[in-house]
Amino acid sequence: ATARPIAGKWSTLEVVAHLADFEIIGVDRLTAVIAEPEPKLPGRDEQQYAARLGYQHRDLEEQLRLIESCRGYVAKLLRTLDPQDWRRCGIHSEAGPLTLAQLLERVVRHVEHHVPFIIQKREALKGV
Description:
By secondary structure, the protein is mainly α. The protein is built from 4 helices and 3 strands; from the N terminus they run αβααββα. It has helices at 12-35, 46-52, 60-78, 100-126; strands at residues 40-41, 89-92, 96-99. α1 (12-35) packs parallel to α3 and α1 (12-35) packs antiparallel against α4 (100-126). The protein is elongated. The chain starts with 11 loop residues before the first helix and ends with a helix.
């Protein structure tokens, strides 16, 4: 998980650590929009997170459990909402106003976006 078969790219562990950290950010954003009227949602610098938060030294299984736990928590919370709650907005510092539905889509797509990179790394390791 710590191999870097593609020069200049994160290892699988680093990708999963990134996903875990940004899953937490996603939970914070989603719950803020549910709880507060038009909360400010600051953007985050993924490169600074990777550089300062020891991604290469994390436990892969723990990171996966963290993602799973965050997803389970949010899924239960979202099931309690009324239809009008999905139109609640937060103000993202980079993307502007985002509804709860749009934020959820972004959180879900984030993992989907990174899965091909993990597959690409696995394929590259087969050739080593």
